């Protein structure tokens, strides 16, 4: 289930993702799967005291968080409920994976988007692909101020939109 999502995000970011079933090695980003009861237990374990994720709201299907001092993601965790049905679980996994790579908030003004909590998408729409590519463009560097990053981001997004339009 996660392999396709990891492959899609890897292609856009240049980051490597892999499945590690039984390692005790520390990971930068960790995705844990379980039913909703497991999710609440894991949320307590990795919750506010650990500083990565907030307390899980009642009825949470999936959640994530990351620690990124100076704009560099050091570690993060996503908790994905697997008792939601295949499509919703796949959508949750992709949604949280996109959060883990640097998109903290939801974007309900953008449609379609995996970060719009009203959309239950199982693939990344072009909107999201452009935003992810922009975030991982080397011209944007961790720790840049908003004033520094905004004009560069606008230029990158303009180039990506023009490239996407030309490809159609």
Instruction: Report the average pLDDT across residues.
Output: 86
Strand order of the largest sheet: 1-3-2
Radius of gyration: 16 Å
End-to-end separation: 29 Å
Query: Number of helix segments?
Result: 5
What would you call the structural class? alpha+beta
The biggest sheet, with number of strands, parallel, antiparallel or mixed sense and barrel status, is: 3 strands, mixed
Q: Low-confidence parts lasting 5 or more residues at pLDDT below 50?
A: none
**Number of DSSP E strands:** 3
Task: Tell me roughly what share of residues is in helical segments.
Answer: 40-55%
Number of domain modules:
1
Describe the global form: globular
The arrangement of helices and strands along the chain is HEHEEHHH
Strand content: 5-15%
Topology:
Layout: H1 2-13, E1 29-34, H2 36-45, E2 62-67, E3 75-81, H3 86-100, H4 126-135, H5 146-167
Parallel strand pairs: 1-3
Antiparallel strand pairs: 2-3
Helix pairs in contact: 1-3, 4-5
Task: Describe the protein.
There is one protein chain. This protein has 168 residues and is of the alpha+beta class. Helices cover 41% and strands 11% of the residues. The chain has 5 helices and 3 strands, in the order αβαββααα. Strands 1-3-2 form a 3-stranded mixed beta sheet. The longest helix has 22 residues, at 146-167.
